[in-house]
Amino acid sequence: MSHPSAWQTHRQYAATAARWTADRWAKESDRRRTLRATRKPLVRDARAALAQAQATDPQKVTSLVHRAERELATAKRRVPDPMWLFASKAALATAAAGYVGLPLVPGRVWMWAAVAVGVAVAGAVLWALLHRPAASPIEPTAEERDLLKRLQPEHWREHAEQRGLAGTLTGRPRLTESGIVVAVRLDGQWTATKLRGSEDHIRALLGARTGLRLQIKAGKQGGWAELTLRTRSAADGDDLLWAPERRSLGIDTVTGEHVAVALGERLLIAGRSGAGKSVASRPLLFDASEGDTNALVIIDLKRVEGRLWDHRARVASTPEEVIAVVDEVEAEMHDRLNVLPKGQDTWGPTADRPRITVVVDEGAEVVTAADKVPFPEEDGDGKTKVRTRSALPGLESIARMGRAACIDLWWMTQKPTIGDGVPKQIAPQISTSICLAVRTPAEARVVLGEDAQAKGWNADELPAPGVALIRDGKRGPDPVKVRYMDKAVVIALPDQPIWSRTTTPATATGAPTLTLVKPSAAAPVVAAVDGTDARILDAIETAAAPVRQKDLAETTGLSKGTVSKAVKRLTDTGHITRQPDGGLTADKAA
Ligand SMILES: Nc1ncnc2c1ncn2[C@@H]1O[C@H](COP(=O)(O)OP(=O)(O)OP(=O)(O)O)[C@@H](O)[C@H]1O
């Protein structure tokens, strides 16, 4: 090895050793600082206890004072010296020992000691090189560096009192993938809830920006709280574009977990205009329209989102279509409930009678527009009359009773207020709420529950678009970054059969073929009769003479409306015929 390269190697070793020593020094002084900050208050307490003991028993008749003195000595012993004092004491002790002892050491021992020290130093350097801890993959940003400094116990102690936080003390802050986490020691007058109430003071003490999310919860031990500053998101760096192989709704920004919402829930999706409701609902609409046993119905008077899905969903975009589709879904629901086998709580979806998800986009507008709509209806005598109808009662009944029939209502609104945005009868039926950014805490409470603010569900502070809180009884208030599903992706999705009560299920693979069952003079196409229709047909078939429609309600126990609709369907499909005098007879050939 040439001289310059040997010199360079030695310099590198020396630099590594110096770095290692500096690193150890910094860590040790840090450890001592934290311990001192935590234990010094205990010395103060012990000193106060001693003073009290001395006042109580000045003559030292009992062991009270003696015990307090011992406790004070123990408390003092447990407070480590600061690093500079410890190092100075160690250097002084070594120097004194050397001064006294070294002249007595023989020359041979000197030589072997020098060899041993050299070998030890070389070994230590080698060991340090091989066991160097991997550099932390998390590099603090400038903001995090500032916050980390201000969270150090010394800084906190110095400023806590003037910020109304006397009696609290931070531990050592850690930088994690979702932000900075620090334990906070609380004295007798503090609790985690009280600390949560002082969030503004903490923000001021740390000089944290207003938009930075702070989370305070009870610590792992009594007397401690955990403060988290959400400076970063665990979803950072993830690919949030929706794709068939990445089908979750989004990613938890705290844990980095994929968050999915299963079908079968009654959903409320709320958020102010532009918060990302439509985009957030797309992965869910995909699931609800995918597969043989799922069918999607979209009620969308804005005709924007619904149109994207009209190759996979039944879309109602006028008030009349809304009334008609709600009637159909409601009749289907009653049919299913009527034939639900005894002991079975919920309908098992099949290709013939799939799970139906009814999505009401901009629910408040639907309720207003589909109200008192002139709608032609057949009355008991088979005559068509125009009545005014509203969609709301049907939607309410689907929300109330649909679950058992495997028919789920999803309500989307940008005005999440009870009465105006979410109907009073529907709000209590909601089982899962997906709340994007809303305007006010009151709106957040309507969507996420009365306890929303108190428990950290602050949807009014969410960034927009595309960040949601999901309250389903299982998740906590960690924001979820929602996947982005573009309109073009929706349009390019393969077709799916469109549900209708007069639709026979598609059996062919590939592009589904839908057959609308309509009466035809040449070759009548007859649908299978089940549920309510079967009951009505049975009552007509078993009657000795033509049956009048109004008598059917009595014989079958069904409501007049249900009977009227069933009679119309059976007449249309050729199962029954209405005689000139209004009597109904069964057509056995059908
Ligand atoms: N998850 C997301 N990631 C990225 N951008 C998003 C996301 N969600 C929404 N956006 C952006 O926000 C815009 C508005 O989103 P969207 O149309 O879903 O809002 P909205 O709440 O349905 O609004 P409105 O109620 O007015 O219809 C989108 O065009 C898109 O550019």
General description of the model:
This protein is α+β, with helices and mostly antiparallel strands and 590 residues long. The chain has four domains: 3-130, no CATH class; 142-230, 2-Layer Sandwich (Threonyl-tRNA Synthetase, Chain A, domain 2); 250-491, Rossmann fold; 503-586, Orthogonal Bundle (Arc Repressor Mutant, subunit A). It contains 18 helices and 21 strands. Helix 11 (319-339) packs parallel to helix 13 (392-401). The protein is elongated, with a radius of gyration of 38 Å. Mean pLDDT is 86; it is low at 503-528. The site of adenosine-5'-triphosphate has 13 residues, from helix 9. Adenosine-5'-triphosphate binds next to helix 9. InterPro entries: ArsR-like_HTH, FtsK/SpoIIIE/SftA, FtsK_dom, HTH_MarR-typ, P-loop_NTPase, WH-like_DNA-bd_sf, WH_DNA-bd_sf. Keywords: ATP-binding, Membrane, Nucleotide-binding, Transmembrane, Transmembrane helix. Residues 256-445 form the FtsK domain.
CATH architecture of the largest domain: 3-Layer(aba) Sandwich
**What would CATH call the class of the largest domain?**
Alpha Beta
Binned strand content: 15-25%
Biggest β-sheet, characterized?
Answer: 10 strands, mixed
Count the domains.
Answer: 4
Write down the overall mean pLDDT.
86
Structural class by helix and strand composition: alpha+beta
User: Helix amount, in percent?
Assistant: 40-55%
Spatial separation of the terminal alpha carbons: 103 Å
Low-confidence stretches: 503-528
Short description:
Helix content is 41%, strand content 16%. It is an alpha+beta fold.
Question: Can you lay out the helices and strands and say which pair or pack?
Answer:
Blueprint: H1 3-56, H2 64-77, H3 83-101, H4 107-130, H5 142-150, H6 153-160, E1 168-170, E2 174-176, E3 179-186, H7 192-197, H8 199-206, E4 213-218, E5 224-230, E6 250-252, E7 258-259, E8 267-270, H9 277-289, E9 294-299, H10 305-308, E10 313-316, H11 319-339, E11 355-360, H12 363-369, E12 373-378, E13 384-389, H13 392-401, E14 407-413, E15 432-435, H14 441-448, E16 467-471, E17 480-482, H15 487-491, E18 503-504, E19 515-516, H16 531-542, H17 549-556, H18 560-572, E20 576-578, E21 584-586
Helix pairs in contact: 1-2, 11-13, 16-18, 17-18
Bound molecules: adenosine-5'-triphosphate (ATP).
The site of adenosine-5'-triphosphate (ATP) has 13 residues, from helix 9.
